[in-house]
């Protein structure tokens, strides 16, 4: 199964969180252009094993996992919600 490298994120402006739960969209490169997916789409695709997404840290691919906490669906790389998650270190997709 193919895995897409996540290269950027978009955070919710009014989010009450400062970790991966604040991410509303992720971006990944397809034919030299950034494609974006909202978190519900990404979560569903991971859950149904349609595709995978990862971030690269020190040359290593780290897979995104889908998480549900109460009513909130989101993705992260680690086993806990942390502002240090590699996803949170990515640039904003809107930056040029």
Short description:
It contains 1 helix and 8 strands; from the N terminus they run βββαβββββ.
Mean pLDDT level: 90
Instruction: Give the % helix.
Output: under 10%
Number of helices: 1
Structural class: mainly beta
Instruction: Tally the structural domains.
Output: 1
- Give the low-confidence spans: none
Main β sheet profile: 6 strands, mixed
How many individual β-strands?
8
Q: Could you give the distance between the termini? A: 30 Å
Shape: globular
Features:
about 100 residues, mainly beta, globular
Would you give an account of this structure?
This protein is mostly beta strands. It has one domain (3-91). Helix content is 9%, strand content 47%. It is built from one helix and eight strands. The protein has one helix spanning 39-47; strands at 3-11, 23-30, 33-38, 52-57, 60-63, 65-69, 72-76, 91-92. Strands 1, 2, 3, 4, 5 and 8 form a six-stranded mixed sheet that branches. A two-stranded antiparallel sheet has the order 6-7. The longest helix is centred in the middle third of the chain and has 9 residues, at 39-47. It is globular. The relative contact order is 0.28.
């Amino acid at each position: 199964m193919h895995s897409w490298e996540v290269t950027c994120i978009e955070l919710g402006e009014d989010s009450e969180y400062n970790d991966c739960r604040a991410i509303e969209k992720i971006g990944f490169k397809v034919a030299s252009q950034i494609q974006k997916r909202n978190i519900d789409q990404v979560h569903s695709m991971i859950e149904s094993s349609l595709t995978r997404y990862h971030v690269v840290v020190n040359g290593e691919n780290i897979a995104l996992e889908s998480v549900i906490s109460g009513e909130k669906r989101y993705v992260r790389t680690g086993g806990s919600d942390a502002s240090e998650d590699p996803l949170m270190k990515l640039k904003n997709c809107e930056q040029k």
